[in-house]
Amino acid sequence: MNNFVSEIPLDIYQATHLEYFNASYNPQLRGHIPMDLASIHVLGALDLSNNKLNGSIPAKFGSSSSLQLLNVFFNHISGSIPTGKSFKLMDSSAFVGNSELCGAPLRQCPDSDGTFENKGTWRLTCIVLLSVGLLIILLGLAFGIVYFRREVKTQWKMV
């Protein structure tokens, strides 16, 4: 509740060490999450919850070794959550309320064609279906051979 209007003040980007920066509950705070925040050398926790921020989370946050918490719940954030050691440890509650946000720990992001299946799952599905189809064909051939052999043995012979 800092009464930030429009953007996060530029002075904050000059800091090199920030343990905790809280810019939550500023209904007039809009725009993207600034890339400059990800450039702060040591940033322990960043709370940007309950604002009107949009765009994606800068990928550079994923490579931050000091970031322990990024709280962006209830904004208009979209795209995928950066992959990084620190993001794997964060709880999903830090990202809720952003319907267009995806990635661990939230739902899986769609592939470029809009599907959610990964290539490994698709390949495994194809192998299983082909194996089952081949098994059905082999069982059908075996049944046919047994049936026709039995038919040949039971025919009458004229003497």
From TrEMBL:
Signal peptide: none annotated. SUPFAM superfamilies: L domain-like. The chain crosses the membrane at residues 127-148. It is found in: Membrane. Keywords: Glycoprotein, Leucine-rich repeat, Membrane, Receptor, Repeat, Signal, Transmembrane, Transmembrane helix. The keyword Transmembrane helix applies. GO terms for cellular component: membrane. It holds the Pfam family LRR_1. This is Leucine-rich repeat-containing N-terminal plant-type domain-containing protein. It comes from Lupinus angustifolius (Narrow-leaved blue lupine).
